[in-house]
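Handout for the seminar on molecular recognition.
Each group receives one record of this type.
Step one: identify the two inputs.
Step two: read the structure output and locate the region that could contact calcium ion.
Step three: write two sentences on what you found, then compare them with the reference statements printed after the record.
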Amino acid sequence: MRAEWYKDRVFYQIWPRSFCDGNGDGIGDLYGVYGKLDYLKSLGVGGIWFSPLYPSPNADYGYDISDYCAIHPDYGDLEIFKKVVERAHELDIKIVMDLVVNHTSDEHEWFQKSRDKDSPYRGYYFWKKGKKPGRPPNNWDSFFENEAWSYDERSGEYYLHLFHRKQVDLNMDNPAVRGEIKRILRFWLDLGVDGFREDVITLISKPEGLPDDRFGVGVKGMRLYESGPHIHEYLQEFRTEVLDGYDCFVVGEAPLMTTKKALGYLEGEHPDLDMMFSFQHMEADCFFTEYMPLPFDLRKLKRAFTKWQDALEWNALYLENHDHPRVISRYGSEKYHDESGKMLAACYLLLKGTPFVYQGQEIGMTNIALPSIEDYKDCMALKHYYNDVRRKSPDKVLPKIQKATRDNSRTPVQWSAEAHAGFSSAEPWFAVNGNYRSINVAAQEKDPGSLLNFYRALIAFRSGSRTVRFGDYRELCPGHPHLYVYTRSFEGETLLVLCSFTEKPCRFSLPDGPAWGAPELLFANYPCKSGETAFTTRPYETRVYRVRADR
Ligand code: GLC
Ligand code: CA
């Protein structure tokens, strides 16, 4: 029997370095998390996904792990971790860990040992000779560097890294590596965690011989290892040998996934994964990544939502995480901050699936623009910046980085209008967004009409609604360039969600016909006249109606 409880909960993602500093050193930590568990409970959260808490040299802020079975000293230790789990469980909040096993840090003991050609760890990674002296073994690209290979003097060979050179790809074809992963899974499950978010899990199986990518469109190599040859076999092995023995679930991160391929992971008696983080809906204002910006096109967003809602029985729903700029600054409007924040909340929280709210999203944190490239930490931003300034002037390049960088979502959470936004008593490790004086949790707690309280109300509603849990999804007026409208229907009840993605006025009439008799307004981000069935939308307006067919 697979766990089903993950379908009834809203999850909250914590990126620990910037969530809350509990011991006054300017870095977020588990002491801070412990103190905020009641806050998360008050938000209606039923689970926490922790971005990596493990020891890491932070080349990619935790996604380069140097020890899988410990807590980074910046964040605390196993004792405080256990306390957090225990208290969370008392509050009926589940705990999900980030499993990052496509690669380890180059500072991991396995990699250090593997640099010796005779070590049993040599086969944990992909070590290869260059094609010719000075030329890497194949032509693959890296997401965070220019090439996917780095040369190690000591070994006299190259090693593979799809990401940063300090994130070395593990050789999943080696049974000993899979054995380590099963040990890691058991370690955390035995400590009481309830599931895993599996980092770039669909990329872990590499093609035999690591051939050149002869077509070479986009990220060279990716089409060869995305859903690679043994992916289903390996995921099944983790499921059968470990995960099936526990009441837990797994959500996989799946870049470049299609709905058709997704079914191969999610369908059948014994699926590889319970849910998937797909990316298509994050590309409504860019081509593949935020570094190739395009004007926002609502029709793209709607097509992506509808495609995934129609194709999959269950989706992992999100608009923000630690890898994307803040959504109000992208799909909403900083000018209509509260209005667009509420509209965006309604637009995805009532879809079919398990919603994830990213820290600070519930108060509408926005992007930040730092004055110099030296102020940025995100390795991906640095790669793009230094590549681009070879061809363009820095004052042309910086604005693009400011908009695209993952650092936008990594500024400290704005808890109050006090010093350092109430995040820490000391100078924080990273810049606080100057708008913390007006956008913060304490101010929104006091205001019944705040974005925070809107999230609370929607989350509470969704938890009690069988229609949101089970209802059929149907999109209305799919061709409309500014309005996203959908219904959810279950056992005689229909919910209608209307979202305007523009400040322009748009005419809208509720569908008529007998079933639409007397719509009841459940949520709105502006005052509304009662009984109105045709109206002109205000900037970023949202309304949620309930209609009972049996009336
Ligand atoms: C995932 C993570 C991202 C990280 C990358 C490499 O996409 O979410 O933060 O940089 O994998 O681990
Ligand atoms: Ca700290």
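Reference statements: The chain has three domains: 8-101+175-458, 109-168, 472-548. The pocket of calcium ion (ligand 2) is lined by residues 21-23, 25, 27, 29 (CB under 6 Å).
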